[in-house]
Amino acid sequence: MAVNLEFENKLWEMADKLRSNIQPSDYKDVVLGLIFLKYISDSFEEKYNELVAEGEGFEEDRDAYAAENVFFVPPGARWDSIKKNAKQSTIGQIIDEAMMAIERENKSLKGVLPKNYARPELDKTKLGELIDLFS
After folding, report:
1. Which of 25, 28, 77, 107 lies at a 20 to 30 A Cα distance from 117?
2. How do the domains of the chain map onto residue ranges?
3. Cα dihedral 88/97/120/131 (nearest 10)
4. Which stretches of the chain are DSSP H helices?
């Protein structure tokens, strides 16, 4: 039960960060997109590390990921890259470009991922704080 409450508290904290900048109905779009980005990046990283440990040089081979039903995440779209740039004023554009890159590499995601993080009404400082909170 405590784990669920902790997760709910984190979600509430994320919503608080967005409260003054966008409509409450838009919170889910921002947060769910970041959750998805973090999830697929974590899944990719886990498989990446397995492939590195195998030592056969397949860690950047898209087919090695597809065979395991793991989305391939290009270098600039990986969470550690997003996290490293969280404080940049261009973080919204960086996330949008990451989403586009993931769609290019994974045809089943084409046209599905949100790409509206660069919009002016989304405070980039708050967006960076959300990324830190996720991390």
Report:
1. 107
2. 26-42+73-134
3. -50
4. 2-18, 24-54, 62-66, 79-84, 91-105, 124-134
Return the closest-CA partner of residue 74 out of 50, 54, 94: 94
Between CA 57 and CA 68 the distance in angstroms is 16
Residue from 41, 82, 30 nearest 65 by CA: 41
Query: 54 is written with which tokens?
Result: 């195998």
pLDDT (tens digit per residue) in 71-97: 999 999 999 999 999 999 999 999 999
> For residues 47 and 133, what is the distance between their CA atoms, to the nearest angstrom?
24
Residue 2 above 60 pLDDT?
A: no
Give Cα 82 distance to the centre of its chain: 7
d(CA 105, CA 70): 12
pTM equals: 0.82
